Amino acid sequence: MVNPAMLALGTTRSCIRELFEYGLRQAALVGRENVFDFSIDNPSIPAPPEVNEAFVSVIQSTDSLSVHGYTQAPGSWDAREAVAGELTRRFGTTIRGENIFFTCGAAPALISVIRALTVEGTEIIGIAPYFAEYRPFVERNGAKFVTVPADTAAFQIRIDELESRISPDTQAVIVNSPNNPSGVVYTRKTLEALAALLTEKSAEIGHPIYIIADEPYRELVYDGVEVPFIPSIYPNTIICYSYSKSLSMPGERIGYVCVPDQAEDSADLFAAVAGAARALGHVCAPSLQQKVAALCTTSRPDLEAYDRNRNVLYDALVSYGYQCVKPNGAFYMFVKAPGGSAKDFSRKAKALNLLVVPGDDFGCPEYFRISTCVSHEMLLRSLPVFKRMINSSEA
Ligand code: PLP
């Protein structure tokens, strides 16, 4: 007999994967140029050149046993120090190597933190629109996933709605900015209001409510927008970071948890993250990738291609009559479905080989997500289909 919950999780296909695979099948039938796949979020810009150079130089200049060997569970000391040093310099704070725990990307980082914070009855809050995987990450690791409805006017945070969902069992709020799927960056004002609320509520319920800052898109921002460093606004913040999107290397599986000293019970929290990772079978993050991350702490992607897609698509969609908050981060656009149901819109669009993800799993069934990490040519070819879709939806 197998675990029914795991069986359900393993056999329920993700809508994104399903659309992506449908797109591949359709491309074989009708030609790649006639399929407009905005479903998946694999980076479409190459890793900065210094990333590949770092891979080569590490392989060539480090002894083989060290490159391919185990490191300590939290990561090699040099790599942890390098990452901590960069965070300290960049954000005018103090992060030490001891605060960094390397993981195989943001997903296991999040699960380790969620597990570390989960006791009997724990509730963890997600703010719509939220990354669809938060629900299984939370629910399948022993906590209750409580959701806050979206602020559809700006995709910031509805502080009043959040307040009404905090209970004595609330252990954490997951904050994802720049956001997947809205592409919006939470402003300093939003984060300060959030910090004020959580400070007040933590005092009221008698234990800290942590922010789990999920930040794989931290470096992907446009128009010079500020991405505030949340631990400087709210001390009880734990960061889950990933190089998947910022350095275009999602298949390399490297990221980290950072538990700053200022977070309440930080030593126990860090140890519990290590324990949770251990329970999940973590041995160490890939040694080679740790070394590359350490060498590339200041590398940044060239965002010109994402920015061009963002501007061209946004202007076109708005001119056709779509409603959308202009994203200033990540590589997504979250658009109101003209007929009111994103599922219906996505199904009709699919018939025209236009693949967009309905927002149901992101907590917003009236919106659909467009991943703008696609080729510009495909994006341009898709515009008449978007136009046709809104016209036919209105008819
Ligand atoms: N969090 C968010 C908001 C994401 O969009 C993703 C991936 O798309 C992840 C976490 C997981 O990232 P990783 O590939 O580093 O596990």
Tally of helical segments: 15
Taken from the alpha-carbon principal axes, the silhouette is: globular
Low-confidence spans: pLDDT under 50, at least 5 residues?
Answer: none
Biggest sheet, in brief? 7 strands, mixed
Explained architecture:
This protein is an alpha/beta fold. The chain has helices at residues 4-11, 15-30, 49-61, 64-68, 77-91, 106-117, 134-139, 159-165, 188-205, 230-233, 266-279, 287-295, 304-320, 342-351, 376-394; strands at residues 36-37, 100-103, 123-127, 144-148, 170-176, 210-214, 237-242, 255-258, 332-336, 354-355, 357-358, 367-371. The protein has 15 helices and 12 strands. The protein has a 7-stranded mixed β-sheet with strand order 2-8-7-6-5-3-4, with helices on both faces. A 3-stranded antiparallel β-sheet has the order 9-12-11. Strands 1-10 form a two-stranded parallel ribbon. The model has no long low-confidence stretch (mean pLDDT 96). The protein binds pyridoxal-5'-phosphate. The site of pyridoxal-5'-phosphate has 13 residues, from helix 6.
